[in-house]
Amino acid sequence: MDMELDSGIYNLIIYLPLDKVIKVGSLGEFEFESGYYVYTGTAQRNLLARINRHKSKDKKLHWHIDYLLQEADVAAVRTWEGSKELECQIHQSLLKRSEFTEPVLGFGASDCNCNTHLSYSKERPKIDEEVKVD
């Protein structure tokens, strides 16, 4: 992770060890399968603080991702320089790979036209240099 970035896009690679029904705010309850989730988000400023907030269990539940992270852990983080528009492109690029599905429609995507900004893979995904953005 680039510690110099103050704003940008990030992927949280999240591990959920056991199947779990989780209430995700006003979206409702969803059954999350054990495995790996990749959440694509953006921070227009204070990127490191945003990521550290996501890693913390002691916080007010505000965003959809906060609810999942009460039950799961951040296993890795990947960051990119770029504007908010790149957030959707990065998420869409993950979905082009056969290992990913979209587990919860509407998750983290209330301010764009994407179905969700959460993807799921049974196995730990490799997202370092493999994420290609058009």
Walk across the major sheet and give the strand order: 5-1-4-6
Strand segment tally: 6
Radius of gyration: 14 Å
What ranges have pLDDT less than 50 throughout 5 or more consecutive residues?
A: none
Intertermini distance = 22 Å
Report strand %: 25-35%
Tell me what you see in this structure:
- This protein has helices at 47-55, 64-69, 84-95, and strands at 8-16, 20-24, 28-32, 35-43, 73-80, 118-121.
- It has 134 residues and is an alpha+beta fold.
- It has one domain (8-121).
- The strands form two sheets. The protein has a four-stranded antiparallel β-sheet.
- The mean pLDDT is 90.
Please outline what is shown here:
The protein is an alpha+beta fold and 134 residues long. It is built from 3 helices and 6 strands; from the N terminus they run E-E-E-E-H-H-E-H-E. The chain has helices spanning 47-55, 64-69, 84-95, and strands at residues 8-16, 20-24, 28-32, 35-43, 73-80, 118-121.
Topology:
Elements: E1 8-16, E2 20-24, E3 28-32, E4 35-43, H1 47-55, H2 64-69, E5 73-80, H3 84-95, E6 118-121
Antiparallel strand pairs: 1-4, 1-5, 2-3, 4-6
Features:
four-stranded antiparallel sheet, two-stranded antiparallel sheet, 6 strands, 3 helices, alpha+beta, about 130 residues
